């Protein structure tokens, strides 16, 4: 018969062995990735060039300036007094929760999620409310959808506005379905930074976010190109659509199918975000203990809602 202490020791030993096995698996995967990088150097170089072109020509023009302005407006307390009693009643929220939804909506991912996580860490949002907003308020930036996708990719800003409407509406539906978890928001009054100090900080924070987006885009496109070498051709398209949303939107626009179907798929991709965005968010969260399974479920639901709404609009 084992004593209670012996059972605890066995459990701890078993846990330690599992951790060691996982670490060995991690090392094996990293060395395998390094070997693939050396074997398929030409494909890796092409993926790096493609990712830099997407970042410089598509993401940066549509996202950087709006991101600076939104961060600057928030630093100068432009959102602190946003309040909607109707919004709170419909979505089971308290205080100025509308301001946090608007900031997350305008900042886009991953900046909006990091902003909500900081609000939870500072006590401006309750923990369950913070988790709910991070799961449901995961949107692309309006600049990317309206300018990069609508105006640049499809040549019509009206298409960008309609796609953005699909994304917003699907997020609101998700908030309605999750209203059993109340969001308690409180505004902590403080003296705002000076005009130029706030502007400088907004520029640096936005530049950091854009650099983070670019690096993760590069990594994911490189890894995707390596995996594609090992998979049959029929499996590559779903992989490309799931991995990184900006390159997936570009790929979707080039599909040889009806425009309505391409726009429906684009709306779903914009709402899902892509695994690259998911990794960006969860690698930067410091306070919110949101399980990834719950976040992924919310992303799939919002993508489905956006697809249905796009079918009605276009």
UniProtKB/TrEMBL annotation:
<keyword id="KW-1133">Transmembrane helix</keyword>
<feature type="transmembrane region" description="Helical">
    <location>
        <begin position="54"/>
        <end position="74"/>
    </location>
</feature>
<feature type="transmembrane region" description="Helical">
    <location>
        <begin position="25"/>
        <end position="42"/>
    </location>
</feature>
<keyword id="KW-0812">Transmembrane</keyword>
<feature type="transmembrane region" description="Helical">
    <location>
        <begin position="289"/>
        <end position="313"/>
    </location>
</feature>
<feature type="transmembrane region" description="Helical">
    <location>
        <begin position="95"/>
        <end position="116"/>
    </location>
</feature>
<feature type="transmembrane region" description="Helical">
    <location>
        <begin position="210"/>
        <end position="231"/>
    </location>
</feature>
<feature type="transmembrane region" description="Helical">
    <location>
        <begin position="159"/>
        <end position="177"/>
    </location>
</feature>
<keyword id="KW-0472">Membrane</keyword>
<protein>
    <recommendedName>
        <fullName>Sporulation integral membrane protein YlbJ</fullName>
    </recommendedName>
</protein>
<feature type="transmembrane region" description="Helical">
    <location>
        <begin position="263"/>
        <end position="283"/>
    </location>
</feature>
